Amino acid sequence: MGITSSTALWYASRATGVVALVLLTVVVLLGILVNRRGRLPGLPRFATTSLHRSMSLLAVAFIAVHVATAIADPYVTIGIAAAIIPFTSAYEPLWLGLGAISFDVIIALIVTSLARARIGRRTWRAVHWLAYACWPVALAHSLGSSTDLRSGWLLTLTICCTAAVGAAACWRIVSSMAARREAERPARALSIGPAADGPPADRRSGDRALTGAGAR
Questions:
Q1: Is residue 197 pLDDT above 60, yes or no?
Q2: Distances in Å between the alpha carbon of 198 and those of 185, 195, 203, 208?
Q3: What percentage of residues in the chain have a pLDDT greater than 70?
Q4: 22-64, pLDDT tens digit by residue?
Q5: Which domain holds residue 89?
Q6: Cβ neighbours of residue 135 closer than 8 Å, sequence gap 6 or more
Q7: Does residue 38 lie in a domain region?
Q8: How many structural domains does the chain have?
Q9: Distance (Å, rounded) from C-alpha 198 to C-alpha 1?
Q10: Which of 76, 90, 122, 148 has the fewest CB atoms within 10 Å, i.e. the most exposed one?
Q11: For residues 116 and 105, what is the distance between their CA atoms, to the nearest angstrom?
Q12: Domain presence at residue 125
């Protein structure tokens, strides 16, 4: 089926949705792989921050176009309210509801980023942890609302995105555990030190007691 004026919005909504999913995957990967110093291995901190911001803004742009074209598409009726308020759409309420949740989280991330100086870093970080929950919700929305992602090369792309996030999460967990053990090593050495020094001191005390008994 070719692209016509009646199907252009449908294709635009599907295409921008796929691109938005890939960009969200990149954003999540960057967030997972960034170390505690705020940078990626081999990149300075300013480059990592710039890359993460650029990918995030690009993802937001594609998500905005995806939502706008889905609302404007005459094939189904998706009101503006259904794009913001979860599970209120008459068409595919579950899957579009998950999309609305993901969209609301992204709006919250944007608002808190703009108001970061006023709300404080702790609140900002707490809200931004939702970005990690936004990705699986967006993935479920994509799989449920689009049959295109369930077969062919789009299915392969979806599997690759899922595998990449899963591998990055496993790497981060293992790295965090290793870093925690490394940080706890000096404390363990200090706690073991006095105990290790105990037996020689006990032996010296015992030797002095034996020497005193022999003298008597």
A1: no
A2: 20, 5, 9, 16
A3: 78
A4: 999 999 988 888 765 566 666 777 777 888 888 989 999 999 9
A5: 8-180
A6: 24, 25, 28, 165
A7: yes
A8: 1
A9: 83
A10: 122
A11: 16
A12: yes
